Every structure is written in C-alpha cells, then in structure tokens.
Amino acid sequence: MKRIALFPGSFDPITKGHENILRRALPLFDEIIIAIGKNGSKQNFFSLEQRENWIKQVFANEPKVIVATYTGLTINFCKERNANYILRGLRTSADFEFEKAIAQNNKIMAQEIETIFILPVPELSAINSTIVRDIIRNGGDVTPFVPEGIRII
Ligand code: ADP
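^ thats the input. predicted complex w/ adenosine-5'-diphosphate below
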C-alpha cells in the first residue's frame, strides 16, 4: 500500500518552516499532499490561487508532492485521497497542546489515520506565517523567511 501523507494548513504564505518540515518528511512517504484548507470563517491574507501557486513553484521538481485544496474535516479529505497519515509541525508548547487535542480527537473519529509530528530545526522554529504577514503589511522584506525563489512584494 502506498504511504500517503496529508500536510494540512493555511500556508498564508508558505514559509521556510513549512518547506523544511515537508522536505524532511519526504523520505518517509511515497506521496505527500499539501492540503490548503479553505476555511470559510478565516480571512486569508493571500488568495487561495496565489498560495497554491507559490507551493507548486517551491516543489516543482519534487514528483512526490501534490498540492490540493479542501473544505471540511481533514480526516474526510484524508479518506478521499487514501492518506493514512497527517503531517504537522510542532514549534511551541502551545502548538503541542493544540495539536494533541486535534490529533486525539481525529484518532477517535478515524482510527486508521496517524498524525506524525516533526520538530522544526532551531533556526526555523521562530518563523510563522502570522509574523511574515505582519512584516509584509509593514513594508518589510520577508526574503529570509520564505522559500528560495518566492518573491513577495
Ligand atoms: P494552520 O493554520 O493549520 O496552523 P499553518 O499554515 O500555519 O496552518 O501551518 C501548517 C503546519 O506547518 C502546522 O503543523 C504548523 O505547525 C507547521 N509549521 C508552520 N511553521 C512552521 C515552522 N517554522 N517550523 C515547523 N513547522 C511549522
């Protein structure tokens, strides 16, 4: 059976932190689907199309990576795509508490799906999309925080 993982998130925008987690997870799986969640109540900064295009650009040479968008429960999208793993990053203790509750509840709803956590490398653990958006809003240069080749003005 193919080992397929889903890496869900808003990727608003994709950062070097996301990229690092995904590249380190690649040897573990046959396919990783980067799944951009379309959450009706969440106001996103960049359009879905823009976020999707940047991710596709970053992983253009990586045939194991697929980019998709979804609405609804992450476990339902996993089932739709035959993904038995959910991939998440754990940056802080706050992330841990939040992710623990979600993963444990997902486990109750879908026992066949395992959530796999990867810790960031120390130099990337402070990067998060919220701060990147703040820097953009205030006219700063986010080149150090986003994947190589991504130009955000
Ligand atoms: P969400 O809104 O679901 O948290 P994000 O796009 O912010 O989506 O993040 C998607 C995943 O990437 C999450 O598991 C998050 O913990 C992880 N992540 C984000 N930034 C980093 C980073 N700098 N290092 C490691 N993991 C990260």
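The helical segments are 16-25, 48-58, 74-80, 93-109, 129-137.
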